[in-house]
């Protein structure tokens, strides 16, 4: 039994750890980032899972190639649903690379946020970053809860079977 544990450790666990060069934190459900040229825009929502009719914060971060937040930039946002523009944030100058805005999603489904940055590219063109943000109705939360519960129950059954077999071998 001890030999099997040592083999498992050396041939499964250690190579797995070595093959994973870095570990990243869990990315938020409604978060994304995109690079265009020397600028990166990140977007996420708080709370992570957006409910229809609830006010959420849309967090936007704009950085340069060195991942430093921009001190001043001009940005506008266009929001699309089913190919139609449903809302917009008019372009204005921001004094910090980290911006928050409150928004209420009126419809369930995928919303496209087009973040336009003005006057920061070297050739003077507008840089447009496109992001998807999904809003869910109550059924979406029930669906996610059901999947999570099913995963937990599967893990419990596997652990129970494993320990039952182990106990049966020892007696």
Structural description of this entry:
The chain has 171 residues and is α+β, with helices and mostly antiparallel strands. 30% of the residues lie in helices and 42% in strands. The protein has helices spanning 2-19, 138-170, and strands spanning 31-36, 39-46, 50-51, 55-63, 73-81, 84-94, 98-104, 109-118, 127-136. Strands 3-9-8-5-6 form a five-stranded mixed β-sheet. A four-stranded antiparallel β-sheet has the order 1-2-4-7, with no helix packed on it. A hairpin with a 2-residue loop joins strand 1 and strand 2 (39-46). The protein starts with a helix and ends with a helix.
Q: What layout of secondary structure does this protein have?
A:
Blueprint: H1 2-19, E1 31-36, E2 39-46, E3 50-51, E4 55-63, E5 73-81, E6 84-94, E7 98-104, E8 109-118, E9 127-136, H2 138-170
Parallel strand pairs: 3-9
Antiparallel strand pairs: 1-2, 2-4, 4-7, 5-6, 5-8, 8-9
């Amino acid at each position: 039994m001890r030999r099997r544990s040592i083999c498992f450790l050396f041939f499964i666990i250690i190579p797995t750890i070595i093959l994973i060069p870095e570990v990243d934190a869990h990315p938020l459900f409604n978060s994304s980032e995109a690079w265009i040229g020397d600028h990166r825009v990140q977007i996420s929502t708080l709370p992570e899972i957006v409910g229809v009719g609830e006010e959420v914060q849309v967090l936007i971060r704009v950085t340069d190639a060195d991942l430093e937040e921009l001190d001043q930039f001009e940005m506008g946002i266009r929001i699309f649903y089913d190919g139609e523009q449903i809302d917009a944030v008019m372009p204005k100058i921001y004094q910090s690379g980290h911006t928050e805005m409150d928004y209420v999603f009126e419809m369930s489904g995928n919303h496209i946020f087009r973040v336009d940055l003005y006057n920061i590219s070297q050739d003077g063109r507008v840089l447009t970053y496109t992001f998807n943000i999904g809003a869910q109705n109550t059924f979406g939360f029930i669906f996610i809860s059901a999947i999570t519960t099913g995963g937990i129950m599967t893990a419990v059954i596997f652990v129970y079977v494993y320990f039952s077999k182990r106990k049966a071998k020892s007696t």
